[in-house]
Write a structure and sequence with these properties.
Elements (H helix, E strand, L loop, with lengths): L1 H42 L4
Keywords: Membrane, Transmembrane, Transmembrane helix
């Protein structure tokens, strides 16, 4: 029973870690898109 508890805790930890990494990746993509959009607007060029 202790092994099952440890397995559950480990899987929950990895699931939390995966969600954290995924949200960081999404945030980085959005930040790059916003920076690229503001850079294009500041240059006065329209894509």
């Amino acid at each position: 029973d202790a092994l099952l508890l440890q397995l559950t805790n480990t899987s929950a930890y990895y699931m939390y870690l995966l969600l954290l990494v995924k949200s960081e990746v999404y945030f980085a993509i959005i930040a790059v898109c916003l920076l690229r959009r503001t850079a294009v607007c500041c240059n006065g060029e329209r894509s």
